[in-house]
Amino acid sequence: GNRDELKGNQDITQTLQTCRGNEKDTAVMGILRQAGVADRNNGAAKGLVFCSTKRMCDQLTQKLERNGVPCAAVHGDKGQRDREAALNGLKEGRIKLLVATDVAARGLDIKGVTLVINYDPPSNTEDYVHRIGRTGRAGQKGHAVALISERDTHALRGIIQVMKRTNQVITPEIEDLARNAPPPPPSGRAARGGP
């Protein structure tokens, strides 16, 4: 039911935010603060950030923790116990945010996510749909943000396709970027960094 999945995404507001590659961390902090995910006392706000590599997950988690955001990394190198601790932390509100790879996130049952951030763009449209589908569940409203730096424009066409299908607003600036973007790399690229 890929169709239905896309229909369900009407409850998700999708936005694209352009920034330079080295400004992504600052951008993430801004988005988290705005969405209430950086605030321990806001029990309702929970976030999920997607990175393309394990190393990036760990680096971003450390940075966010230093900035006072209670979060945990979830990826292939983390054992079952670590994952369960992260999930329980999120459920109980000790953790506000999980930073995950696509592969790790697939097996997670996470409820109540209000914000999804694509720190690195997904390698294909299907992954994008899976990522944003982690929020806006069960009739709740959700918000999904994709950070697009000069290195990420190849992913725009696919993301815009999904956004158009769900009647999202796409700015002329983004349309231009997508038009001039290089074609996406062959999907073998993701295999190199490993999930």
Automatic annotation (TrEMBL):
Class of the enzyme per the UniProt entry, highest EC level: hydrolase
InterPro entries: Helicase_C-like, P-loop_NTPase
Domain Helicase C-terminal, chain residue ranges per copy: 31-178
Organism superkingdom: Eukaryota
Gene Ontology MF: a single term: ATP binding
Keyword ATP-binding: yes
Enzyme Commission code: 3.6.4.13
Keyword ATP-binding part of the UniProt annotation: yes
PROSITE patterns, per the entry: HELICASE_CTER
Ranges for region Disordered: 174-195
Signal peptide limits: none
Keywords in alphabetical order: ATP-binding, Helicase, Hydrolase, Nucleotide-binding
Protein name (database record): RNA helicase
Organism field: Zooxanthella nutricula
